[in-house]
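## retry 2 of 3
previous attempt timed out at serialization; input unchanged, resubmitting
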Amino acid sequence: MVMQEGLAIIDGLLVLPFPGGNTREGRQSSGPGFHVYVLQASRSFWDDRSEEIVETAQAEIDAGFRTLATVLTARWGEPRTVDLEPYLWGEDHAPEPMNQLCQLSGEMFVWRPLDGGRWVALAVGQGDPELPIELLVAVGEADALR
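## retry succeeded, writing output
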């Protein structure tokens, strides 16, 4: 992923209206009060989960995460780290996009852009050992984040 492309996607999601119902198209899922987009994905590991292959893929995704996190921190200040595990194991059904994100990742970094109406989060996750490792961005309504 090219950093400029990732930033353009994030900027687009910040102004994109939230739909009235849940939708999924390509790398993006959206719904009332949220958007989630897969910025970068490794290959899947169905045929080879060797340590070297997985570590190389993880390093590439982590590099993308660090690069974007650095740029977003320069824009909006230090992020807040949000533990996603309580959403996974909570008694109540987790609201979106936390429900999606907690299935893939244990934490996310969250920034609040200066306009205050929405938050932006980055997370790295993997749904299952055979599935791709993904760099995800989520955008949500500011009052929806605990």
